[in-house]
Amino acid sequence: MADKIIELKNVTYTYPLASRPALKDISLSLEEGKLYGIIGGNGSGKTTLCITICGFATKFEKGSLDGSVLIKGKDVEDYEEGEVSRMMGYVLQNPFSQISGVRETVLEEIAYGLENLGVAPEKMEERVINIAKKTDIEELLLKNPYELSGGQQQRVALASVLVLEPEILIIDEPTSQLDPEGTESIFKIIRTLKEEGKTVLLVEHKIDLLAEYADEIIVLENGCHIKSGPTHEVLIQRELEEHGIQLPQISVIFDELKKRGKDYGAIPVTCEEALKLLKNA
Amino acid sequence: MYREQLMKKKKNKIAGLYPMCKLKMLGMYVILIILANIVQIKELPLLLIPLSLCIPLIFVLSGQPKDYLSFIKMVSYFVCFVFIVQALLIKGNDPVLIWQWKFLHIYRGGLDKGLTLAFNILNFAGIFYWLFKTSGYQEISAAMEQSGLNHKAAYIFLSTFKMIDVMRMNVYTIMDAQRARGVETEGNVFVRAKAFIPIMIPLVVNAMLEVGERALTLESKAFSVKCEKTIMIPATHNGYEKIALTISALIVLCAIGGYVLWLTR
Amino acid sequence: MEKTKRYSLKDDFSMVTLLTIPICVAINVVGDQIVQLLKLPVFLDMIGTVLVAMLSGPWTAAVTGILTNLVMGITDNPTLIPFAITSAACGIVAGIFARKKWFSTQKWKLVVIVLALVLATICTASPISIFAFGGISGNGGQSVAIAALLASGTNIIAAVVGTDFWINLLDRSIAIIISFAIIKVIPDRTLIKYSLGANFTRKKAE
User: Fold this and answer.
1) Residue C205 belongs to some domain of the structure
2) pTM higher than 0.90
3) Which residue ranges form the domains of chain A, and what is each CATH number?
4) What is the tens place of the pLDDT at every residue in B157-177?
5) Which class for B262: exposed (0-12), middle (13-18), buried (19 or more C-beta within 10 A)?
6) N or C: which end of chain C has fewer CB within 10 A?
7) A34, A2 in Cβ contact below 8 A?
8) Do C193 and A62 touch (CB under 8 A)?
């Protein structure tokens, strides 16, 4: 049994001046070292869930929070100022607003978080270069972060959080500005994070990729937690389509085949699994 | 390897001095300015004129004569205007006529006031401009942080310059967009004034909307973690600071000596 | 529930405010640039200061004002640096009125604020421009007017204060109108993050 690293107990969160809560009575417990995919339509509360887990929802948005968010068994509100950011890295959707705006080169931009943690300057460069290699931006290191394309900025944003080596990573649509090839490479990076034992929460629309990489899926709708569980169990439930969730094409096809009498024994969620099933049949 | 590249010092020994050292030199220059104001030759602060010629000399020695030209372009109109207005319009308590041409008169009082103001502006503004032109903003901010400036204050300082650059570029983008939508940016004063709001508001609101996200970003980059902060590319000494300060101090001492001699003449 | 809400400096200088100060300085500087692009006869270098005063009070506004003149002094015209005192004074005055919730739709209150700002400007800027620059300020039109007044025999103090009054009356009024226009467009969710932002939200907190 893995440890519960994040626990939400009956969390209801309302933005200031809002008449309805953005999150309604959400209880979740997330295990260490797993990759969680968060899906749901626009306005379903995915981003709100992310900032609530980080403790930002009360600190910056000044909304009202009922219930409790526990990080490693301790309430997120009880941590001293800034301590949560040592454990948790949060990569936002919009890459442009993630540029610190005080550093001239990508190298220093990525190192900015290390500077804030007081890492010795001599040790920074090695860490930055390692991350830059990993995220494939090594040739950009001496460029001005404002002069990069959206996709490059997105990689820089990811790199500048990864370099801090947090145990928990919350990543909000990291591939919105990337082409399919770039998207694939970001997912590969995310998989290596999982291999390093980090817990990853990933908000993502590209369901086929989630099917391939995520361990578990959490489905939100209108601020409510409507379903969660292992990827293989969640992404084959056709009733999710009624909630506006798109399922992997492959699972829809196999489900339709099953209804028409062609049962392959299981319903796959990725192409690889489908191929395996077809070969065995 | 990248770090070494970025930390490479300027070749010029004066421009490459540590910013705080330059600040001390600036302080000594201010002493010279004050002395030049006190010493009167023919009842005029004439010493300010040769002193103001030291500014281009300092720029040339720092290897940045072009920056002096841009400085002169910036202030010359203003300085001339101040000088002419004072020289021609002020008579002083007991008017001594120095120069006359048709209806134009220059009295000693006016000349005194004009010279004092014009050359003080040149001297003070010039030396400040030198400090900020020979050290980058990031270098100055790093030096201040190393001398104990709060990292939040350093953030505000640096981020301001970046924000101005970003917004300057956005002004043109928004102006073009609003023109395309039919906002008039040329015509009489009222037409042009009306264009101000549709340019200003999107510019400001766009920037303000990003603030929330930027706060979250900084927080997840450990901005508010309470610990000793470090700087990857710190401001460094180039080794000539002591010599520079000694020379400056000697010049100031000589100037003070000269002043004492002048007092007891 | 909070019983009494007391203002604290820490509230005023929250992370969000910290990030807003550079924007407001940039508004001041770039406002000046737009004025020049549109060739308008005003300076409008105080919109950002008034805006930040309305959102988070006098101290942040003072910082914004001082920083504006320093930055413009470094990048544009070094003679503006002494007028940092004026910008700070105006920021403090606007911020005090903002705390008292005088920035409202009642027109007479706004008129009082404009007059107070003009007074703060004259009390600080006129002495600086007289002592440091002999009455000439960075504004071309005003300088010509002062020169003309001086030439016609007007006392220098009267000339400077007189022209300062009219120019600043116009300038500060426009600054307040535009700050209001900006605040109206900013969504409630952003406004609420500032220490005084709740005064301007459309929906009121219970």
Assistant:
1) no
2) no
3) 4-247 (3.40.50.300)
4) 999 999 999 899 888 899 899
5) middle
6) N
7) yes
8) yes
